[in-house]
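Same chain as my last thread, 683 residues:
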Amino acid sequence: IFSMDEFVDYLYEKLGFESLKIGAIDSIALLYEINKRNRLVASPAEEEGEELTLDEFLPWGFKLFRDLEELYIENVKHDRLRDIQGEIRDIPERVGEKLLTLSEMYVSFYDEIEERGLSTRATRYRKVAEKMGELDLSDRAKIVLAGFFALTSSEKQIFEGLKSLENTVMVFQKGPGIEKVINSLGLHPDVKESPLEKPEIQFHRAADLHGEAFELANILRGIDLSEKDVAVLPDATALFPVYHIALPADLEDYNISMGYPLMRTPIYALLESTGRAQETCLEGSYFVPDYLRVVLHPYVKNVKLRGESAGTRVLFHGIEEALAASDHRFVSLDDLEADRELLGRLLERIRPLDPAYRDMEIEDLSKHLSEIHRVTLRNFETIANLADFAGKLMDLVSFVSTKSPVNRHPFSNPFIEHLLKALVELELSDLAGEAFSDMSSYFRFLRNYIRAVKVPFEGTPLKGFQVLGFLETRNIKFRRVFILDVNEGILPDVKKEDTILSDAVRRYLNLPSYKEREQISRYYFELLIRGSRESHIFYVESANRTRSRFVESLIWELQREAGKVELPNHREVFFRVDFSQDDPQPIPKDDDVLKYLRDFVYSPTSLDTYLRCPLSFYYRYVLHLREKEDIAGDLEYSEVGILIHSLLKEFFEEKRGKPPFLSAKRENLFLYNKCTYIAFSFP
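reply #2:
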């Protein structure tokens, strides 16, 4: 049993080819080398430093490789690319001037692949398609090609080569657009009609994703679920709301099978925070909000100190309080580690938490803080090249995965495993020795590199309730279907393709466009719904989100059948929320409170607070309860007000008892950010 890619690899090896298959990162390294080498040959007078840097090339290199692979697998001839060079879109002028033409890059890249004895996914497809006549598959009693819809040019050649074999059987499922595929292969299939019960379709309209998840939870509650039931998630964003909210607590058997973007995981968020901290670092001092974003990440603030996480949490939240109380916007790691007064105060809080902390000294706490700073921040202050960068990222990931309770999250291990696998691939790639001129370029490269990585959730497909991505439902028939996020932009996915080829160019070259993507989605959507006995279709309707055109088609069809325009089987999803409040009970003033109030120095703000709500006054000025202070990037209005009032108080204290009057001499008071001045005249 093969996927199409696996089947092509099997045929490729059966033909006797043994070339190494390279991935995107090594292919981009080769493209960069080809462009650099050929541009220098073409323009020998070009001054050193004028050629494209790796940092400039990489964002376009990822797109360029994807487009070249698509062109090659679709068997586009290079001479057709010469006519469309002027239509290449969105590339900055300097990059466009320094890149080889698409036709030149196309020819040079695949010639180089052939000369080096390498292969890519597209070259394997093309090679197998061209050599179908030489394949001997007589050792197989039966070859079954089942459930295909959209075929590339190379796939069509492979199918045409297989259809002439006596031991090949092709099976297609009847659905919108399948006749076009069958006709393109010149097939005349036997039609096997099977009686299908008309599914009962229920629509659920919610205000947001969590509304969909809560509605799904209500439906699943009390149902005897099995492998014949499926929750379909066209958008991976819905996975964790469904997992935490919708799946019944007593459900033991379930299977999750879909791809989840690595960029959405907590472990990648930590790497992003580290990158942001380095980008805003100024002469060895870190911007406080970005520093705190790193050390307060759950994976960092729970690093174990003598076997327990509580001490590290107290340490970093204590540092957060100290930084919030100070006026500093930048902080030095060395200063924090050497601040014995701060560490001493925090140590007094930490010691009672656990017996392991009782004999701890300030030096121990400073050493622990220094180790975390080293792995999360200091290591990235200097980077030699991409191999060094990947190694330091792996050290950080390994540190938090072994030193913190990260593995308590049920999905953390596959996230970390796939991130480490991607970083190892980078460390061993042909780009490993390349270096960037500035720190931000390394983390920008990381974003482009990780963007395409998805974490597959692999389970036991035939065990329990199924939670699948949309394309994972292909060719499977279910009794009950619950499909979420059936919204425009998700199903069908009409987002702009990440390509340098415009729609007009794609039409000229006969490449698939968004219309073909819509046809694929419609085909599998209708198969999924029509094959069920009961389908629940969820969608979000709000100011900026509308239900899918597929939903509109279904509703129109049901309205025609019923002969009325009322929405059929339609349920509105609302949260049951009670915003009513009881009147607050008065708090009696005992002797201590009365004494406190008599001695209290009232300010205009405190009086305003009392007049607005006496209870708020009690909580704020008597109990001294405050919201947690967040350290923002810019000064808040309240901070500006406090600063100005403190400066005015200090200024006027010196003038107490002296009458003010106007004079030629002015005393200027500079208050805030080079633009606010308050001038007063005194003798």
